[in-house]
UniProtKB/TrEMBL annotation:
Pfam families, sorted: Dabb, F_bP_aldolase
PROSITE patterns: S_R_A_B_BARREL
TM segment ranges: none
Entry-linked InterPro entries: Aldolase_TIM, Class_II_FBP_aldolase, Dabb, Dimeric_a/b-barrel, FBA_II
Domain of life: Bacteria
GO biological process: carbohydrate metabolic process
Domain Stress-response A/B barrel span(s) in chain numbering: 298-389
Protein name: Fructose-bisphosphate aldolase
Stored Gene3D superfamilies: 3.30.70.100, Aldolase class I
GO cellular component: cytosol
Gene Ontology MF term list: tagatose-bisphosphate aldolase activity; zinc ion binding
Length: 394
């Protein structure tokens, strides 16, 4: 139940003047630490998986744990796929359970960024999934030149580009880059709040930032006042994990792996909870749950008989159907089966899981579905019954 629509969650944050943390998770220690913080502080939270980290873990395996953590939570949770490489990556993320996506084309030209993002929006919205767009970035330490400051070509977000980008792509949220200048990696960032204020007034949608620079509590609050409702956060969590491992290694020379990482979850949890309280999300869980739609999958069930083909041909048809239908955006799985009793009233079944109710229409309109059903299924199907069930977990 507490897995909720990400758009509802961020719309509430935007309307009520607080920000939700989108914490990048790279292991179960991160998942458990962030969720423990959210439970303690009664805060809504976004668990985020970034494509840039996929070399460090198996996306499908970690997503299983992330989705399980969200569904058993007592606080509202959304699952976000961050900085995807392309449309195919976003489709896969939705299939594996993400209910918010972002494909990062911010390093491309404005025109290419717009085109790529619009393609993702069209696909994701047909699946009921909101999309985050990205214009520019807040530089990190690697962008600082040896003489101090950032390159003059750094692509900071302009009001005109932001307005045109949102209107032409239909994104639900936008990552913005406001001027952040640092003379060295450890100095405090200087933010162009006037730029942010103008962007917020022009757009009126939840804004997001990638937090990779040093910001103090007051700076976070000023960002939130001017429309930032989503803060993408990883660097400080990783630093907390590193510090916990280093401290353990010093205090227990020769410690094994399990001993070294035993404090990682607690360190991550403490930093995540600090953020939730500073950003104003703490204590908001109940009111968010009251106004957010639960994110629930749909089971599309078909039972039928066949006429005019052999059992071997039925098997071949089902295998072909699984391969064709499982790649349609918003389809999470395709399972086929045969009745255990030969005299059963209906001999064959299909169980197709949709990510959300919106997929029902887009699935039946998809060219792959139309081609398979018209060419292979309908000519042989007999007494077909099709039912869609909204799935709810206790």
């Amino acid at each position: 139940m507490p897995l909720v629509h990400m758009k509802d969650l961020l719309s509430h944050a935007y309307a009520h003047g607080y920000a939700v943390g989108a914490f990048d998770v790279v292991s179960l220690e991160f998942v458990e630490g962030v969720m423990a913080a959210a439970e303690r502080s009664r805060a809504p939270v976004i668990l985020s998986l970034a494509e840039s980290h996929l070399e460090h873990y198996d996306f499908e395996l970690l997503m299983s744990g992330v989705e399980a953590a969200a569904r058993r939570s007592a606080v509202p949770v959304a699952l976000h796929f961050d900085r995807g490489a392309n449309l195919e990556a976003a489709v896969r993320a939705i299939r594996l359970g993400c209910n918010g996506v972002m494909v990062d084309a911010s390093q491309s030209t404005f025109s290419d960024n717009l085109t790529h993002t619009k393609t993702v929006v069209d696909m994701a919205h047909a699946c009921g999934v909101p999309v985050e767009g990205d214009l520019g970035y807040i530089p990190d330490a690697a962008d600082i030149n040896p003489q101090g400051g950032y390159p003059a070509t750094a692509p900071y977000t302009t009001v005109a580009e932001a307005k045109g980008f949102v209107e032409r792509t239909g994104v639900d949220f936008l990552v913005v880059s406001i001027r952040a200048e640092q003379s060295c990696p450890n100095s405090k960032a200087k933010l162009d709040i006037q730029r942010l204020r103008s962007i917020n007034q022009a757009l009126g949608i939840p804004l997001a930032i990638h937090c990779r620079t040093r910001l103090d509590d007051d700076q976070f609050r000023r960002l939130i006042v001017h429309g930032v409702a989503k803060i993408n956060y990883f660097t400080a969590l990783a630093e907390a994990a590193n510090a916990a491992i280093s401290a353990r290694a010093k205090s227990a020379p020769g410690a094994g792996y399990l001993d070294l990482v035993q404090g990682v979850g607690a360190a991550i949890s403490a930093e995540a909870e600090r953020c939730m309280r500073v950003w104003g999300a703490a204590g908001r869980a109940a009111e968010v749950l009251a106004c957010c739609r639960p994110w629930a999958s749909v089971e599309h069930l078909i039972i039928h008989n066949v006429i005019g083909i052999s059992e071997k041909e039925v098997t071949a048809m089902m295998i072909e159907g699984q391969q064709a239908l499982s790649t349609i955006p918003g389809v999470r799985s395709v399972i086929t089966g045969k009745a255990m009793r030969e005299r059963a009233q209906y001999r064959y079944c299909w169980q197709v899981r949709f990510a959300a109710p919106e997929v029902i229409n887009s699935y039946h309109e998809h060219p792959d579905y139309v081609a398979f059903t018209n060419r292979r299924f309908r000519p042989v199907a007999d007494r077909e019954i099709s039912i869609d069930y909204a799935m709810e977990s206790l």
